[in-house]
Every structure is written in C-alpha cells, then in structure tokens.
Amino acid sequence: MLDAPKNRPTLPPEIARRRTFAIISHPDAGKTTLTEKFLLFGGAIQMAGQVRAKGEARRTRSDFMQMEKDRGISVSASAMSFDYGKYRFNLVDTPGHSDFSEDTYRTLTAVDAAIMVIDGAKGVESQTQKLFEVCRLRDLPILTFCNKMDREARDTFEIIDEIQEMLAIHVTPASWPIGMGRDFLGCYDMINERLELMDRADRNRVAESIRIEGLDDPKLAEHVPDDLREKLIEEVAMARELLPPLDPQQVLEGHMTPIWFGSAINSFGVKELMEGIGAYAPEPQVQPAEPRQIAPEESRVAGFVFKVQANMDPKHRDRVAFVRLASGHFQRGMKLTHVRSGKPITVSSPVLFLAADRELAEEAWAGDIIGIPNHGQLRIGDTLTEGEVLRVTGIPSFAPELLKVCRAGDPMKAKHLDKALMQFAEEGAAKVFKPMMGSGFIVGVVGALQFEVLASRIELEYGLPVRFEPSQFTSARWVHGDKAAVEAFTQKNKQHMATDNDGDVVYMTRLQWDIDRVARDHPELSLSATKEMQ
Ligand code: GDP
C-alpha cells in the first residue's frame, strides 16, 4: 500500500496514528450500518445491532427522544473512538437531517476528513451534495464508500461519472465491483491486487482476501466465473485508461476521492475502507487560530469547543462540551485556561466516547475528541489552552432563516423561559434575540423542525409549555462597525433592533430591500449573515 505523503513535520507516534473523521450521507444510505461495522471491527462492540439497540434503549427515556425516533432522525451528535490496526479512529457523528445543517457544519470543523457514503442504486442524493459542499469549503479530504452493492446498483462507470460531474472532484477506484445485486461476488482491490469475496452466509464476518498477481493470474478463474471475469478484466482496463490513478497528495488536498464498493450490512468492503482511512485520510491537521495557528505536535495542550449538548443525563442539569484537541498530550486533572473568560478550569472528569458508552478519559492526544462536563461556562467556539491567549477561528454562526416569537404557555412560569432559551442558545440549537421594543423573545433557527424540537425540550426539561408565534421579522443581520456608529444606528432604528444571546447588536426586518438600503445609506456599518462564535 502506498504511504500517504508527508506535508508536515513528523508527528509524535500517538498523534500520527489518529484519524478523526465524520461520515456524510443522505438518510438511508447506510451510515448507521457502516458505523456499526466500524465499531465491530474496531473491537468497540461485540455484536452488530448494539449501536441501534443501545440507541433505542436511550431513546425511550423521554418524549423528546421519542420524537427523534418517530422521525427517524438523529438530533444529537456524538463522537466515538476505536482502534483498528495501528490506528486510532475518532468518528464524529453528524446529525442526518438537513434542518440541522449549522450543527453539522460545526461538527465538520472538528474533523480532518469525511467519509461520503452513497447508495449504489441512488448515487449522489441531495443531502450528500449539501454536505459535500460544506466539506469543500474547508477542502476536507473525502473518501467514498458506495454501499448496497448486494442490491441492484447502477453501472460502476455511471456512478463514478455522476460523482465527478455533480461534485466536481476526481474519482479514482480503490476497488472494482464484480457483478451486482444477486450476482455480486465481491471486489477486485485495485490498490493491493487482491480479490475480496463476500460471504453471504455470515454478515459479520470479514471476507477473506485472496492475493492474486494481477488480473491474468489463473487463480482469478478459480473464484470468478467466466462471464464476470471477462467483464471485470475489461472494465478494470478501461478504468485504468479513463480514470486518474490514485494520488495521495490530491486526496489530502480534497481534489480527488478514492471510491470503495461494498455492502455495509454484509460487512463487505468495510475492512478495505478502514485500511484506506488509515492510509489516505490525514493525520491531525494544523488548526487555524489567532494570533497564530496551532500545530498538533506542540507539547502544550490546546483545544476548542465545537458542540455543546445539554441534559445528556436528564437527572442532572449538566452540559457536555465536545472539545477537539488541537495540540499536545492531555491528561486527566489538567488545569486549562478558558481563554474567553481568562479563568482556569480543572478538567477532572473528561469523557471519552468509546462506542455508545461514556468513559472517563485518563489521557488524550491532539486529534481526539473529549467531552467536558460543565455548568454552562463552555460555549461553542471557546478555546482552551495551557495559558496562552489563542482563539480558534473558523467556527461560524449563521443568521437564522426562520424567526418566531416564543411565548410561555403558562404566564406563572414565564421567568423560566429566559433561562431555557439561553441554554439552547448556548448549545447552538437556536439564536435568541431580545428586541429593544416590546417584550418577549424572538427565536431564530435554520430549519423549521428545530421549533418543534425546542418546544418539546423546553416542556420536558423545564416543565414549561411554550408557543411559537409568527414574528413580524423574517431576517436578522449582525451589525458591525464603530461603536458610536452602531449606537447611533440603533437609536434611529429602535423598532428593528435587538441583541442576541451574546449581547451583540442585530438588525431585524422582513424585507431584503431594507437590508440593501442600510448597506447603501450606512457605509460606516456592515450587516452580516454570519458571525464567528467566540
Ligand atoms: P442511515 O440512515 O444512512 O444511517 O442508514 P442505515 O444504516 O440505517 O441503513 C438504511 C437501511 O439500509 C437499513 O434498512 C439497512 O439495513 C439497509 N442497509 C444498509 N447497508 C446495506 C447494504 O449493504 N445492503 C443492503 N441491501 N441494505 C443495507
């Protein structure tokens, strides 16, 4: 197998063996099944079916989780660690539903690569495309797994062409399928010149590899019937002529994706994909930050919060901040500086996510994801260091596309609403705006489903029924500029002004025309649809 090129100084071995990635896919393509097989081969679970079974046991705990189940979506993301060969994989789960794109975007800031799973019969679907675009913004390396080859799938060249055309990325076959649907035999591993045959009898067994000396090896005929063999030889010759050869550097730069074909449910192709992640997905990467970037090999620990999840355990009002370590060797009990507040925090009970269980993390390295339980001090975008004032950049917050007024169903409990909404704002689940004029809160989300999620969580976690009513506004823009200019503008436009949950000034309107007018009449200000979390 080719070694990935080194474009950076050699990393300490513990860091160099880490691969931190997410899976992107359209719902139903097989992300859960593939995750389960990863964990199975990574030794993190004993039996396929556990991920789902555990998920369901957890879900029955509350109505909110029930809603997740009914709609077949996963609202909460988590991170899972497991070993495979010499590698330590950190798989960060992305929420599957398009309504949670902002969360997904931030999750993708915490990984070094993405695995794109597509259904062999359906090709590139809408959600795959959207998520791919997000990866592209960061030039994330992408490895592709074409799943469900045990069913009638599309022609192999057609699938590859579709990816190349729709996603504008070079595709190079790492394996080539032999037959499809009921005749699917397995794959020819184009990197290692191996024959991989699928075992239909045992879904959890890893296929045996048969080493062959190229496609004219007589051993091929022992395993592959004549018609499929001829087709395979012809197609591989054509693929080698028409498609670009695997170039690890191009993969690292996000310009080329190697594609493996397989069937997650039959455990087929998964092992090759895992080897591929080890070989072609990058080591922990340099993290953009101010005033300087953070390199993974630095001896001091630095990390950033990319997700906050509240009430993971409904009995405790705790939150878990998911921190991606950007550098160093973390040890339990370490005292880190919370850069935003300048305060020290002692990380005494960090959590590592091994499969579906939480475990205390005694140590972790750059590239790992740890969970830090806290009472709300840690927010998305926060940086933790061993004292240096660094601020990780590139974790955005988007202007919500949907705004509604939130009212307490029970006026006696209205004061809890403030607290509940602030909590969800800190989690990044919603934006909360306090208008200058009038009472109440305006809540902004990126996807409509989030209103329902919020309403059921507020009721469940705070015992407070709420209503979301239409708002007179449809757009919110952060106002940037000189302090005096922002203040003068605010005073003149009180009806439109609000502050967000961080106290930043926001202009709200229902007309794009208004936004254009402000831009024209107030060159000293800028209105923006994103702000960096800090
Ligand atoms: P997700 O929505 O992307 O997480 O997809 P799931 O992993 O839940 O899979 C969706 C459906 O496809 C389930 O019914 C799986 O059993 C099925 N499935 C997953 N992988 C395969 C496969 O390789 N072959 C076939 N035939 N079905 C599969």
Largest sheet: 8 strands, antiparallel
Tell me the number of helical segments per DSSP (H or I, 4 or more residues long): 15
User: What is the approximate shape?
Assistant: elongated
Q: Overall mean pLDDT score?
A: 85
Contiguous uncertain segments of 5+ residues = 1-5, 47-77
- C-alpha termini separation: 42 Å
Instruction: Give the proportion of residues in helices.
Output: 25-40%
Q: What percent of residues are in strands?
A: 25-35%
**Could you name the CATH topology of the largest domain?**
Rossmann fold
Biggest sheet, spatial arrangement of strands: 28-25-27-26-30-31-29-32
List how many beta strands DSSP finds. Answer: 33
**Count of folded domains:** 3
- Structural class by SSE content: alpha+beta
- Class of the largest domain, according to the CATH hierarchy? Alpha Beta
Q: What name goes with the CATH superfamily of the largest domain?
A: P-loop containing nucleotide triphosphate hydrolases
| Oligomer classification | single chain
CATH architecture of the largest domain: 3-Layer(aba) Sandwich
GO molecular function, one term: GTP binding
Keywords: Cytoplasm, GTP-binding, Nucleotide-binding, Protein biosynthesis
Subcellular location: Cytoplasm
Domain Tr-type G: 16-285
